[in-house]
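Chapter summary example.
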Amino acid sequence: GTVMEEEKFFDYGNYIQERLKEIDDLDERRYAKELLLNSLGSVFRWTEEKYRALERRIMDELAVPWGHFHVSMTIVERDNYDPINGYWYPVCGEDLKGEAERTGCRSVYLAAGEWECREFLRCGTVAGTEETTGKEVRFRIRKSGRYTHAVEKLYALFRANHIPWQTVHMGHLERFFDLEPEEDIRTDTGTVFRWGKWEGLVREEFLPLWNISRTAVQSQEFRHPCLDEVVYEHICHLGAGQEGDGCLVDADGDILSIRHEKDRVFIRTGRETLENAVLYRIHQGDAGDSHGYRYPVLSNRRRDSFAARYLYQTGNFIQTPMELYRKIGELSGGYDIRPQGYVITDHAEGRLLEGDMNVCAGTSVFAGDGRSILLFRFGREDTDGDYLYESQIRYILSQLQMEFLEYRCMGVVE
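The structure predicted for these 414 residues follows.
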């Protein structure tokens, strides 16, 4: 590997220039320069271009089959939401309609670590004062279930469209909490909350966004005769967007297959019509440049490499420590995740992180589970750093949990 890397990135032009300086005879140096740089230099450049073309072709042949279906998430202030951004869309459309406000329920985002979020939920209630009346009101703290439901719906779409499911990073969605008043309050007035120790960590009027748009589609149909059944092929034309976008179709009845072309989707079903069909487009590529979109982006996009593509293509996973650490690095995204080692044990204590982001897929860790624990140790120098660090570890554990079903995947940060 090292020899090939040195050979690939060797700077022939600079090397020749350095060697030419060692020729004292200027006429001979001029002749050597013309021969080596003008003649052999073009051969070197041609060889390098052919090498890069071969490398690109091999990488394309080993393309990851679900590369069009990466899901990214971020958050933004409600006032900074850009409705014409072609990449980011609300996870729940009702967030824009203000239905939560009309029902008297507030949603807040807690920019805190895993354990602080759990403590905030255990508090049970938070106090607030109505701005106009001065009335004291207490609010019950609840997890925002509508976002979990949106991910469960997405998982059902992946299964219905026969696309391999990849864990959706729940780091942002898990930090949204609904505040339900314990008594009737006026919905046309604001509330001043007393956050106490959570002051500075709670962010009000925030929206979660992801790279998935939802569009009702009209389809054309063509009937294909078969020996024992009738199959209908419906054509859904796509609008403007990136060529690498993934598409999921929410349609009544079973979908037999889906075929993608550049600007349209072919859906084969046993139904004559596609009533109330909805197209979910997972946008890839450039996220755009909208004002206020400055918060961390969490994605299930993996670091690309030849080794990763080859293993995905063959379906093999070499269960060695080095390969396991490579997979953790592949899932780390923009975070510096440092595995210090792992152990297989029947008992573990302390602040354990679990791979529990795939509840919708049925791979969560249940209480009383008798499986052995695959316990990873992670090192972290800056304990006051990014509040999403431990969420990234839970995302990694959730991905590994889908591959190591014989163990309960857990982690501890030291």
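To summarize the output: Confidence is low (pLDDT under 50) at residues 1-7.
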